[in-house]
Amino acid sequence: MSDVARLARVTPMTVSRALRTPALVSKATLARVEAAIVKTGFVPNYVAGSLSSSHSRIIVAIVPTIMNSVFSGMIEGLSEVLRSRNYQLLLGSTNFDLDVEEKLLREFLGWRPAGIVVTGRRHTRGARTMLINSGVPVVETWHLDGEPMDTVVGFSNYNAAYEMARSLIGWGYRKIALIYISAHNNDRSIARRDGYRKALADAGRKLDPGLECEVKFGVGAGRGAAARLLEARPDVDAIMCASDALAAGVLMECMRRGYSVPKDIAVTGFGDVELSAELVPSLTTVHLPRNEIGRRTAQVLLDRIAGDLPAASRYDCGFTIVRRESA
Amino acid sequence: MSDVARLARVTPMTVSRALRTPALVSKATLARVEAAIVKTGFVPNYVAGSLSSSHSRIIVAIVPTIMNSVFSGMIEGLSEVLRSRNYQLLLGSTNFDLDVEEKLLREFLGWRPAGIVVTGRRHTRGARTMLINSGVPVVETWHLDGEPMDTVVGFSNYNAAYEMARSLIGWGYRKIALIYISAHNNDRSIARRDGYRKALADAGRKLDPGLECEVKFGVGAGRGAAARLLEARPDVDAIMCASDALAAGVLMECMRRGYSVPKDIAVTGFGDVELSAELVPSLTTVHLPRNEIGRRTAQVLLDRIAGDLPAASRYDCGFTIVRRESA
DNA sequence: CTGAAAGCGCTTACAG
DNA sequence: CTGAAAGCGCTTACAG
Fold it and tell me: How many CA atoms lie within 13 A of A245 on its CB side?
């Protein structure tokens, strides 16, 4: 910056102003500074800028995994808005492990981010302490149920699963099984399971533990669970899955075994990724506004940073039951 | 840090040493400092550390999109290794637009990263200048063909497509169509198309422009292209796709139209994402070592930063033709 | 509209 | 093994 200043015959302070508040600099000076910047190929040092201004323009986001369109959709929405406002995304994935979340958080906090995004509402005690003491806005995403720590952006996993199960009941299915992702430390997963149970109970159906399969995530896990379920419980006429990937696996297993979907058995997903609409049969699922969750999260964070917004708000981005061919 | 120092009755310099080179601090002092760190909840300020040491522990990575298992697989490999060595990933996606790449690069360079990862070998003139002048190691990934700028980690898209096309010929297919992602500014895509053409030419087949479909990426694009191809060219007996997502779309369209794969028509992909092995029929495709590309890239970068490695190397992570049911 | 001084929180490069 | 001084490249908070 002092090189630029010398070339433009001003002090570094004026270069800094030309960059940040050009309105406060005279036209002639501004032109000289801009020419000098181009000539020197100067790139402002954000590290120095952040240190002296105590404001980093870095937003930290922690997700379970980016190997899933659901989360990458949110990340794309998030980073798009942030980039347009000259904020940068520091991204970490926990592989669904809350201890990893805590470690990532500790590392990331060293960069003194201007805001933090985490997934879900369950955190280790250490992580919770760091989040509260961080002194910056924190947004918890995806999971709306329960008492928020600061701000929450997402939808109700409980309600979404409840509605899907209720829809299946409404469509006439009698034995509805559930395949869901390991609920260990995963509050979204627990909520989906509980929503399913409540819908069945509300319809006067007896809960049947043999109809619930807890598995790892992924297409392969869905196939495996479907295989076991179809063998053990030929009375099942619908399989509700807590993710589209699981449902795709179930669909494939049904196809392998010569079951016709939805005639012999109905299948539903959760998430509505691109593939789901293209599958044969196309997948009945819960549409989640992934991109909007990301964009809204970014917006809230930026407004909070600007001081335009009170803490502790709650944004429900909603969900939609999308009925297609598979149920 | 001075709070910690006061509590431990040492100077900040000793706290810094206790954190970075504990071997140079006496046992007793170390214990006092550690206790003080816990008591104060001190989190080192990396912004200040980077500024004073002129070393940031930030690695910048720019990919076309994270909405694709292929790239997210690389990112996971990359960030896993980086995290284990206490480096952070600053991630950007260009949406396949080289101008966006240049803008991202300009922003990211402000953080004075310790290394840079880009996708492909084609960049705007401005981006190329910034990369060369950055003064830090640069790794270009995915695309091995041609003259490297600095270091390259990936595989030969040309060879992979060539081998797949040659395999199809060897398996007895006569009219092999190609569906590939828009080649505009996408060197990987161009190389795949050229590899396909060369394999056909080497087998003495005449090139037929009507057999090549250039489309956008995604399952839907694959379905659309398949629909057009199947209508226009009933003589086609194999469709080679330049990505697994395209191939999944083709498979779905074939199913809709009652074509039996591979009896009526063969389909192949490129990438080998998780779904591909589970599809019915399972997809014959090119397996890419996505995770390894990421890990190797991280390794090279870290070695280069440590000064253990000469510039301008070339790492071929290879590929494998995986024959499954679809061809 | 522009500048001189001080400081952000660390690390480097000595000195002892 | 520990510390005092200087500096990393900016911005803040004045002063003029």
Answer: 19
B chain contacts of residue A56, beta-carbon cutoff 8 Å = 47
> pLDDT tens digits for B94-150?
999 999 999 999 999 999 999 999 999 999 999 999 999 998 999 999 999 878 788
Of residues B197, B322, B327, B323, the one with CA closest to residue B250: B327
* Number of CB atoms found within 10 A of residue A202's CB: 12
Q: Can the peptide bond before residue A234 be classed as cis, meaning omega within 30 degrees of 0?
A: no
What CATH architecture does domain A157-287 belong to? 3-Layer(aba) Sandwich (3.40)
Neighbours of A50 (CB within 10 A): 25
Residue range B51-155+290-317 forms a domain whose CATH class is: alpha beta
Identify from A38, A46, A95 which residue to disrupt to test chain B contact, counting B C-beta atoms within 10 A and taking the largest count: A46
User: B243-292 pLDDT, tens per residue?
Assistant: 999 999 999 999 999 999 999 999 999 999 999 999 999 999 999 999 99
The answer to whether some atom of strand D lies closer than 7 Å to the beta carbon of A53 is: yes
pTM of the model: 0.92
Backbone angles phi, psi at B322, to 5 degrees: -110, 110
- Asked whether this chain's domains B51-155+290-317 and B157-287 adopt the same fold, the reply is yes
Read off the amino acid at residue B68: N
Q: Where are the domains positioned within chain B?
A: 2-44, 51-155+290-317, 157-287
At how many degrees (to 10) do helices A12-20 and A27-40 cross?
100
Whether CB of A92 is under 7 Å from strand D: the answer is no
Residue the block writes with tokens 């280790």: A124
A125 near B CB under 8 A? no
Annotate A100-117 with DSSP letters as a single string.
HHHHHHHHHHTT--SEEE
